Amino acid sequence: MTTDITIPRIDLPFAISQEHPLQDGLYPATLEWARRFGLVTREAAAERLRRYRLELCSYYAPTVDSGPALQLLTDWITWAVVFEDQIDEATAGLRPDLLAPVLDEFRAILRDDPGMPAPSNPAMAALADLWQRTAADSGPQWRQRFYDHVSDQFRAELRASIHRATRTPMDIATCIELRAKTGWVTFTHDLQHHIHRVWVPDTVYCSTPYQTLLWSVADILMWTNDLFSYTRESAFGELNNLAIVLQTEQGLAPQQAVNRVHAMIDDRVADFVKAGRALPDLVRSLRLPPDAARGAEHGLTHLRTLVRGSYDWHLSCERYQHGPDITANLHTLDDLFGITQAGGDANTGCVPEEGTEQAK
């Protein structure tokens, strides 16, 4: 059974995303890359990936004319998409006890820890390839910022996994916090800087206007996603969705909850616009050198394309179109993290009780 809702139009004061001249080649190349590392092994998985319209990652970099740079961005986002499917619709998100060490292994790859063993699962192998392609062409400051953001993403994913595994509902404040931190927004913004060869210095990046811009984008993107995924996620009991949490906590009807989230998105768009107007004054008052001022200007432009591009992607993506039985394939995806091999009861959705023998 599905819940029918109407998603109101989201008004954004930015130009509609345009087709990139290089976009048609992105999906075939990223599919080949995903097959090579075992992220995609069956035609059903390839079809699932196709429905994401990953070629539209080019919306986030409309002025980049380098095919390899756009392909790197697309491959990274493909990895993040596969990661989310493992968390949301395979079994990884139901086993925080087994997920935590996998996330630590991912972190070790991004730290270039010495003596790392060969990757033990497809997700590790693909991540190692991505990091090798990225780290060699980036500075230490960028690498540290990227690592910090991805590590924070993993930490938030683990928190959300604990809620799922223990079937503990989220309150509104927790949901808002975790939605922002599990949205791959800081990750994608870092990659925008990388492929555009732009650096936003800490004096700008850590300022209140820039942080307001960044986290308002995170809220806009993730709450928009909550609207588009509401019907699907409400059908299989997802907890990390703001509309679902509002509906539960405030006793709202589905459409009322959707309308409430839409109003909250409008408020965050206003916050973004206000902070964007404040940023040039901040740059002038700090008397930053020209390259830092240009970095701030480019950063603001990238965030605008992120907001607009994500919304236009949601409108075009087939991911959230569903049939009558939208839960049919829940928890039937290939295990790409090695979670199932590590725990025989990984498909139960329950955390083993204390004292129960766990897989070694």
Summarize the structure.
The protein is 62% helix and 0% strand. By secondary structure, the chain is mainly α.
Word description of this protein:
With about 350 residues, the protein is an all-alpha fold. Helices cover about 60% and strands about 0% of the residues. Helix 3 (about 65-90) runs antiparallel to helix 8 (about 185-195).
The counted number of beta strands is 0
Share of helix, binned: 55-70%
Strand content: under 5%
Q: Count of helical segments?
A: 15
What can be said about the biggest beta sheet? none
N→C terminal distance: 40 Å
Radius of gyration, in angstroms, nearest whole number: 20 Å
Give start-end ranges of low-pLDDT stretches: 344-360
Shape: globular
Query: What is the averaged pLDDT score?
Result: 90
- What is the string of SSEs from the N terminus onward? HHHHHHHHHHHHHHH
Structural class: mainly alpha
